[in-house]
């Protein structure tokens, strides 16, 4: 029976006793996490907090219009959140709209804690700061500022 190249198994010599391929697999290569990944995680964590009506980026009306314009940009999960990511740390800025009647300081504390916990658990990055801007208060009788679509 003749052996072909596909029948030959190559055996690697260990580079160190008990280890193949040069050591711990966790040290072979680099993992980079983009700003957008941290922004999405942080945005979802902020939305989980009771008392947060929405995330904002300056103007609820402008954001609602942009989200509804065909081809004008799809709705962004992370709208209202900006992250700067380094190799080991990240800093996050978030702009929120709170419901009327809630304690803004308690909501801000809960947002900060939930964002830090979620981002650190999922990415392994240290969150060095979370800066929160409360840009609006949603009144009970106030309708969401989402205009009717111009194109149907």
Describe the model.
There is one protein chain. The chain has 152 residues and is α+β, with helices and mostly antiparallel strands. It has helices at 35-47, 60-68, 104-123, and strands at 52-55, 81-85, 89-99, 126-138. Helix content is 28%, strand content 22%. Strands 1, 2, 3 and 4 form a four-stranded mixed sheet that branches. The chain is elongated and about 65 Å long. The protein starts with 34 loop residues before the first helix and ends in a 14-residue tail after the last strand. The model is unreliable at 60-69 (pLDDT under 50).
Q: Provide a count of the helices.
A: 3
Percent helix among the residues?
A: 25-40%
Report the order of strands and helices. Answer: HEHEEHE
Mind telling me the C-alpha Rg? Answer: 24 Å
Give a quick summary of the entry.
This protein has about 150 residues and is of the alpha+beta class. Helices cover about 30% and strands about 20% of the residues. Strands 1, 2, 3 and 4 form a four-stranded mixed β-sheet that branches.
Keywords summarizing the entry:
4-stranded mixed beta sheet, 3 helices, 28% helix, 4 strands, alpha+beta, 152 residues
What is the topology?
Elements: H1 35-47, E1 52-55, H2 60-68, E2 81-85, E3 89-99, H3 104-123, E4 126-138
Parallel strand pairs: 3-4
Antiparallel strand pairs: 1-3, 2-3
């Amino acid at each position: 029976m003749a052996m072909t190249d596909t029948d030959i198994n190559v055996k690697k010599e260990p580079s160190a006793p008990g280890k193949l391929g040069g050591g711990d697999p966790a040290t072979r290569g680099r993992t980079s996490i983009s700003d957008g990944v941290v922004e999405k995680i942080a945005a979802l964590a902020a939305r989980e907090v009771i008392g947060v009506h929405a995330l904002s980026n300056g103007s609820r009306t402008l954001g609602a219009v942009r989200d509804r314009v065909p081809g004008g940009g799809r709705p962004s999960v992370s709208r209202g959140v900006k992250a700067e990511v380094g190799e080991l740390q990240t800093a996050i800025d978030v702009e929120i709209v709170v419901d009327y009647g809630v304690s803004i300081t308690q909501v801000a504390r809960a947002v900060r804690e939930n964002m830090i916990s979620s981002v650190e658990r999922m990415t392994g990055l240290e969150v060095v700061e979370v800066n929160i801007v409360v840009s609006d208060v949603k009144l009970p009788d106030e309708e969401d500022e989402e205009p009717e679509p111009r194109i149907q």
